[in-house]
Structures are given as C-alpha cells and as structure tokens.
Amino acid sequence: MRIAHALKGIAVERIPVEIVGASAENRRPACLDVNPQGLVPALLTDDGVLLTQSLAIVEYLDEVYPEPPLLPLEAATRAWVRAFVLAVLAETHAIVTPRVAIRRASRTCSCFRRR
Ligand SMILES: N[C@@H](CCC(=O)N[C@@H](CS)C(=O)NCC(=O)O)C(=O)O
Fold first, then answer.
1. Ligand 1: which atom is nearest the Cα of residue 101?
2. Closest C-alpha to ligand 1, atom 9
3. Based on the number of CB atoms within 10 Å of its own CB, is 43 exposed (0-12), middle (13-18) or buried (19 or more)?
C-alpha cells in the first residue's frame, strides 16, 4: 500500500500499529473499532469508507487514481504481476503473519515437550 501511494503520488496520514509481542495494538479495542479483523493495513477514504485487505485497497487506489497505472499494459505481463501478488498474499504472507506464526510455533514446540 505504501508503494502504491508513493507511485501514485498520493499523500496519506500514516498511523503505525504495533502488531508483534506484548505491546501489540492491533487486538486492542481502539484498533478493533477501526478494523474488526484486527489487521493492517486499513485505509479510511476521504469519504469516510473503511477499506481493508491490501489487494482490495491497492486495486481501489488504481481505480480511483488511474495514473500512473499499477499494472502493465500487456495481458501476459499483467497475469505475471497478479500471480506474483497472489503468491505473496495468499501463499507466503498468510503463514508468516503474527497471528498464524505464533500458533504454528507453539504447536511445533509442543511436539518436543517433556513428559
Ligand atoms: N490478507 C490481509 C492480511 C493482513 C495481515 O495479516 N496483516 C498483518 C501485517 S502485514 C497483520 O495485521 N498481522 C497482525 C496479526 O497477525 O496479528 C491483507 O492482505 O491485507
């Protein structure tokens, strides 16, 4: 989202949210009031609409601010870019984000727990 904003030349107010460890803010009421999923990024538009999910937000930015376009013109190259995005979002990031990584780590540790 940051890269999309920069490429489009859109100025936004950015509010950092701690998502790791005991000081994680994303599961606290102040953040859950903004995004009940407790995830970042979230984008509040000038019209007061809250958008979530990074791909949906980036596509929204590309539709509302079409220049410069984020996707290449040629169909096969567009497909390559979309495949890369999905590999990161759907297959890689989904298993390393804190809410998932912490559960996976605790499960792995329990395999080696002494009796
Ligand atoms: N599919 C979502 C994933 C959002 C997501 O997992 N964001 C991470 C930070 S990059 C997060 O908020 N993690 C908090 C957590 O796992 O508790 C998207 O693309 O926006």
1. 16
2. 40
3. buried
